[in-house]
Design brief:
The protein is mainly alpha-helical and 225 residues long. It contains twelve helices and two strands, in the order H-H-H-H-H-H-H-H-H-E-E-H-H-H. 17% of the residues are buried. It binds heme C (HEC).
Length: 225
C-alpha cells in the first residue's frame, strides 16, 4: 500500500534533484544551446527500408547502361536521316554515310507509292508499273527528265495503255531525285545501275527554262527505246 502510494504521488528524490538542477542557470544555457543545434524532431520519421536502397541502386545501374547504349552521345541530330559526319563533299566518309537506297525508299513511300503502289506494280489502266518498266530500267536521262518536269499524254508500258498525269518532283534536290530513282531502279526485282546526283544536275541544266511537262512521244523522240 505504502509502496503504491509513493509511486503515484509526487516526484522521486532523484527526479526532484534533476528538476532542481534544471533550474540551474548553466544547465539552462546548455539546454538552450542544444535546442538551437538540434533539429526539431518530426513525427513519423522512420528509416528507409533497405530493399528500396537496392531497388534504387538497380535503377541507377540500368539507367547508366541504357544511356551508354542509347544516348547517341547526346547529339541533337541523331534522328536526322540526312546526317553527315562532316559537311558534304569533304571526303569519302561523307559519301559512304549517305545511303541513297534508304533515302530513296523513304521518298518513294511518301511521294510515289500512292499511285505506283508499294511494290511498284502500279494499277492496270490507271498508273503504270515501275517494276520491269523500260522507262525505269532503261535510259537514265529519259527517266530523270520525267521526274524533273512531269509527263502527260498517252503512253504504253508493258503492253498496257495509260493516259494520265505524272506530277513533277522538280522542286526536289538533285540528290533526292537521284536517290528515289536509284531506289526504283534497284527494287522489287529491278536491277539497273544507280543514278548519280551529278547526272541529275547535268540533265536539269540541259532543260534551260522549260517548265512544261513532257509527252511520252516527245521523250521517245529524244531517247528512243
Ligand atoms: C499522282 C499519281 C502519281 C504520282 C504521285 C507519281 N506518278 Fe509516276 N506516273 C503516273 C502516271 C499517271 C504516269 C503515266 C503518265 C502518262 O500517262 O503519260 C506515270 C509515269 C511514270 C513513269 C514512266 C512510266 C513507267 O511506269 O515506267 C515513271 C518512271 C514514274 N511515273 C515514276 C514515278 C516516281 C519515281 C514517282 C515519285 C517520285 C512518281 N512516279 C509519282 C502517276 C504518278
Amino acid at each position: 500500500m505504502t509502496d503504491k502510494h509513493s509511486k503515484k504521488t509526487g516526484p522521486t528524490a532523484h527526479e526532484t534533484h534533476e528538476k532542481g538542477a534544471y533550474k540551474d542557470e548553466t544547465m539552462q544555457a546548455i539546454h538552450a544551446q542544444l535546442m538551437r543545434e538540434k533539429e526539431e524532431p518530426t513525427e513519423g520519421f522512420s528509416q528507409m527500408p533497405i530493399f528500396l536502397l537496392f531497388i534504387f541502386g538497380a535503377l541507377m545501374f540500368w539507367g547508366g547502361i541504357y544511356l551508354a547504349n542509347y544516348s547517341g552521345s547526346f547529339r541533337s541530330d541523331v534522328f536526322d536521316p540526312n546526317w553527315h559526319p562532316v559537311p558534304l563533299g569533304e571526303g569519302d566518309i561523307t559519301e559512304a554515310a549517305f545511303d541513297p537506297m534508304k533515302k530513296g525508299k523513304k521518298l518513294f513511300s511518301r511521294q510515289c507509292q500512292q499511285c505506283h503502289q508499294a511494290e511498284g506494280q502500279g494499277i492496270p489502266g490507271v498508273y503504270p508499273p515501275l517494276v520491269d518498266s523500260p522507262w525505269v530500267v532503261g535510259d537514265e536521262e529519259r527517266l530523270i527528265k520525267i521526274l524533273l518536269l512531269g509527263m502527260s499524254g498517252p503512253i504504253e508500258v508493258k503492253g498496257e495503255s495509260y493516259n494520265g498525269n505524272m506530277p513533277t518532283v522538280g522542286m526536289w534536290s538533285d540528290r533526292e531525285i537521284a536517290a528515289v530513282l536509284t531506289f526504283v531502279r534497284y527494287s522489287w526485282g529491278n536491277e539497273a545501275s544507280p543514278i548519280a546526283e551529278e547526272k541529275v544536275t547535268e540533265v536539269r541544266a540541259s532543260l534551260g527554262d522549260r517548265k512544261t511537262p513532257w509527252t511520252p512521244d516527245e521523250l521517245l523522240k529524244f531517247h528512243p527505246m
